[in-house]
Design goal:
Largest sheet: 5 strands, parallel
Number of strands: 7
Strand order of the largest sheet: 2-1-5-6-7
Structural class: alpha/beta
Number of helices: 11
Bound molecules: adenosine-5'-triphosphate, magnesium ion
Distance between the termini: 37 Å
Strand content: 5-15%
């Protein structure tokens, strides 16, 4: 679909088109389209801009990634479709590994995602070699698989747009979990150590910049407090938009 630039919802519709293209190219799962719709709804509620709270979370995430011993960026179909270049830039800036890790397990889709990341400049993409597979937590079998040289060995993992169960399993393994999730009430948002409540399309660019010019590796970030501010920001936005004045 050709969306005219003058359309009042041009940005949102263009992102949606990107996801649909990702689906047609075999990168995004059908369920990924639903997850995107959930994200769109929450983006409306946060006002489709990066909030103060999200900026603070991005700063904390940058500090955590830069001080990690073995950081890993977990990539699913939606993430690979929405910001492939930024993933590569972030991996470079933080010396992180990139791993394809899917909730809806599919070897063919994994390979396609690997190929698209390499096209975006990734040198190495983990998660597609069955000989390196290891299991995590007590999740049902396909959802458990991670790469022994990637997430399995990581101390800090960035798992954007992730499912709650898997976030919890990673935490139980003692890993520090950072996520992007527009829904501050999702289980992932609630379980992670650092939740960036922002659209990954906007937030990933800011995270890359923050990692390129870090200010301090010490932040006193509290995720519970940040989530509570994120909910307040939504409430304030709704109050503003919903008032008659
Ligand atoms: P949970 O399992 O954590 O309770 P869920 O089952 O509602 O959440 P999942 O499909 O497991 O959702 O995870 C996807 C999450 O990613 C959702 O919370 C959704 O709002 C969020 N999301 C979708 N698209 C984006 C985006 N572009 N940027 C940031 N977050 C997004
Ligand atoms: Mg879920």
């Amino acid at each position: 679909m050709n969306i005219p630039k003058s359309h009042p919802r041009f940005v949102s519709l263009s992102i949606r088109e990107k996801i649909v293209r990702g689906y047609n190219d075999g990168l995004v799962a059908k369920e990924g389209l639903l997850a995107h719709g959930r994200g769109e709804a929450f983006d409306y509620l946060v006002g489709e801009k990066t909030s103060k709270t999200a900026k603070a979370a991005i700063k904390a995430a940058a500090a955590k990634l830069l001080s990690a011993q073995n950081p890993v960026i977990s990539v699913n179909g939606n993430v690979a479709t929405l910001c492939p270049k930024e993933i590569v830039q972030l991996a470079k800036a933080t010396q992180a590994k990139i791993e394809v890790n899917l909730f809806y397990y599919d070897e063919v889709r994994k390979k396609k995602i690997e190929k698209s990341l390499k096209k975006a400049g990734a040198k190495q993409v983990l998660g597609t070699n069955p000989r390196s597979y290891r299991k995590i937590g007590n999740l049902d079998s396909p959802r458990r698989i991670v790469d022994k040289d990637g997430i399995f060995a990581a101390d800090v993992v960035l798992v954007p747009l992730e499912d709650g169960d898997r976030t919890e399993a990673l935490q139980k393994m003692g890993k520090t979990v950072i996520t992007f999730d527009l829904n501050p009430l999702s289980r992932t948002a609630q379980k992670a150590d650092i939740t960036i409540v922002d659209n990954i399309i906007r937030g990933m660019k800011l995270l890359v910049s923050a990692c390129k010019k870090p200010k301090s590796t010490k932040t006193n970030f509290n995720n519970k407090r940040a989530l509570s501010s994120a909910v307040s920001e939504i409430k304030n936005n709704l109050r503003r938009r919903g008032s008659l004045a």
